[in-house]
Amino acid sequence: MAPRGTSARVTPEVTPDYWDEACKHLSRRDRVMKKLIPQFGEARLQSKGDAFTTLARSIVGQQISVKAAQSVWNRFAALLPGEAARIAPGGVLELSNADMRGAGLSARKVEYLCDLAQHFESGSVHVKRWGTMDDEAIIEELVAIRGIGRWTAEMFLIFHLMRPNVLPLDDLGLLKGISDNYFSGEPVSRAEAREVGDAWAPYRSVATWYLWRSLDPLPVDY
């Protein structure tokens, strides 16, 4: 996302420190990964932005195209002070519903964004403790927010918190990647996908990322 204004700075990207070890582990354990990983060179998962902004973008982008989501996000972020790459929950709560609707947000997404902001402002989500919480505990906090389901929470774990061992079984791209690479294109059940994924532990997020890349050479971004 291009930052707004001449004074806005680009949010730095962070790469997981476990990535190289994960690639070695997966290559030793899995014949598909051994062939797939070298195809993408030095590409790595990257995290950028902050927790609230990342989740707000996920809500804005629900059920619309990437292009449309970017357009709505830019108009929404323009209502707030500072950078489009980092918005504050307090700022969202100060906006009127009319202004948010005017930016192209549906009434339901306005409600979702306000609920998200209220959770962050009230401390209902323990952002500073996420580093010591396990994945399921974080998912439990996130799905209590309106508009955030398990899939969104799992994407957040992978792309923002860069948790190494997430297996998003509700993700159609993961299921297709497993189908294409392990089952010669035959449809796979969640149980079959879980069985394949269990062999990737403790780096299931990394294997998932490479399967996404096998479907689309452009890096997956969230």
Radius of gyration: 18 Å
What is the terminal separation in angstroms? 11 Å
The appropriate CATH architecture of the largest domain is: Orthogonal Bundle
What is the CATH T-level topology of the largest domain?
Endonuclease III, domain 1
N-to-C SSE series?
HHHHHHHHHHHH
Number of helices: 12
Shape designation: elongated
Class per helix and strand makeup: mainly alpha
Give the count of structural domains. 2
The amount of beta strand, in percent, is: under 5%
Spans of at least 5 consecutive residues with low confidence: 1-11
Multimeric organization: single chain
Whole-number mean pLDDT: 89
CATH class of the largest domain: Mainly Alpha
Number of strands: 0
Helix content, binned percent: 40-55%
Main beta-sheet strand count, sense and barrel state = none
The CATH superfamily label of the largest domain reads Hypothetical protein, domain 2
